[in-house]
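Dear V.,

Thank you for sending over the compound details. I've combined the ligand you provided, pyridoxal-5'-phosphate, with the protein sequence from our construct and run the structure prediction for the complex. I'm sharing the raw inputs here so there's no ambiguity about protonation or stereochemistry in the SMILES, which I know was a concern on your side last time.
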Amino acid sequence: MAKRDIQTDLVHAGEVAPVEGAVVLPIFQSATFTSQPGEDYDDIRYLRLNNTPNHQVLHAKLATVAGGQDAVVTGSGMAAIAVTLMALLKAGDHFLAQDCLYGGTHSLFNEDVPSLGVEFDFVQGNAPQTWEALLRPTTRLVYVETMTNPLLEVADLEAVVVFARRHGLLAVIDNTFASPVNFRPLELGFDLEIHSATKYLNGHSDIVAGCVIGSAEQVGRVVHKLNHLGSTLDSHACFLLHRGLKTLALRVRQQNENAQRVAELLQGHGAVDRVNYPGLPDHPQHERTQRLFDGCGGVLSFELSGGVAAAETLIEQMQLPKSAPSLGGVESLITRPAATSHAGMTAAQRCAIGVEDGLIRLAVGIEAAEDLCADITQALEQL
Ligand SMILES: *Cc1c(COP(=O)(O)O)cnc(C)c1O
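Below is the predicted structure of the protein with pyridoxal-5'-phosphate bound, written out as structure tokens.
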């Protein structure tokens, strides 16, 4: 069959024949499933093994939309990241990781990975000429994120793939911020794509979930480790993720448009010093995102000339966005990273990575762009 649009695959890919005529796959709330004569251990279906009918439809759908051979869902995004690294690396191995990572991932690498006997070095995502010097004979893998939080820097993703190929490394990417609607890293040559499905994939801020997508061989390694560690996505959460995925393309395309409109409004406003959004022509990696992405996502960040005080007033005055961490849901969320995701660092450490104390992060939802823009405009007038 001709290649279908992702919007069609999100609805139809992986779906099974109706059960008792039900148009929607029911929740199989069963820990264990009967076995047939002649089946062996690998055929056992059991909830911890993430292989109930609710899991299997998700795996098939996610693999199709991301262009992978196989996929597996996990109990959270962090579980997906931790299990992937544990599956692919063993004591004595070394890997390279982008230096500006999601906070939970940063803590996992710094606090837990060393005790597994695995070493790593941070690399600058946009300085590929510096990566080779950090290679060791034991280097196995390179780990990056599609866009950094909260500054929306886009690493040289094409160079990552070329570098990994040349040196026989696995290339792993956390593609949470783009979702497969905006970017499909497996098509570019990445080996494994990880998501916090808590964010865009589910899209309704009501579960935590993760997934890993890639070749049958690499996903098989992850599944084997996952079965030992027991990070299961519960059947009911599977059902919600399945439901959320069907509208992923509609939601993300609206979020792309909303973020672009809001970024342009902010950039033209006298009270705003700086706007970070890859969809703006003056973003340092704008040209790359136009080439590689179908959209720049729903997250942007900005600084006001009034600093922290102005930031707090703006957050207070905005009517639509709720003040909460996370992103990718239907509702807009706003935070000041220095007081939330980056509160564990000192002001000097934050400054060194470009996160000023007055920086505001806005993760837009699917509200009408006009209403979001009107809300920001009225809040800016209160400053
Ligand atoms: C939220 C997030 C995670 C962690 O996912 P959880 O589902 O909260 O465990 C990992 N990476 C990125 C980029 C995220 O935004």
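A first observation: The chain has two domains: 6-245, 250-380.

Warm regards,
I. M.
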